[in-house]
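TPR_REGION domain-containing protein
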Amino acid sequence: MLIDSAKIGIQEPFAKRLLENLMNIGGGSGDNIKDLRIEHDTAYYDELLAMRKYFQETLLREADFCKNLKQFLETGNIFEQASNHISNSNLLAAIENLFKAESVRYHLLAFAQSYKEFDRISKLLIQYYEPIEEIYTNFINEAKYYCTRGIDIIRGRNSEAKKQLEVILRAVEIDEKIDKLYKNNRFEIANRPHCWREMLFKIIEERVQQRVEAFQIEDRKLNQNWVTRYDSEFILM
């Protein structure tokens, strides 16, 4: 990482004087060279102190960042809550927790990018966000189940199942926007984009096709029965 010379105490006049004295070293006195060496050593020592202070502050900022992030994720047990909500089929509460954590990750990365610290902050976030993909997988498994039964749910009278299906479709829409945000900002996130829309809509499409084919088979059977019955009646006549 490059450090601004103004921040670590390097002064241009001193460097200029150092160069001038070196050029005139043959005609200068021993006392001048001695004074110059002392001043040079002092400036070098000050530079080291400034560098140490800079790196200490950087490490403290990094440690404070980790502490705050860990506190956010653990105080509300946000991932644990999301898992419990999925186990209890409360998909709305689960996806709200997941998107809340996702929002925090996005804004932290955007902040880090603006301060040229993206790579370091991104690496710090990885360990804290490892559980989220497993929870997303559990959520999408529930979503697949409801999408498989989508036709029956829509035609049925179970309002709770309809609400769950509505939550899933809304979650797909929001998650797609999250994918686009990461893509537009060139944030590389493991296991993203999710591409939930393609996955779930394919399930629904296949299910509809199966239902149509089933109706066609049923219609053919009815037609065959009608023809058989008509032929029998015609023969009896």
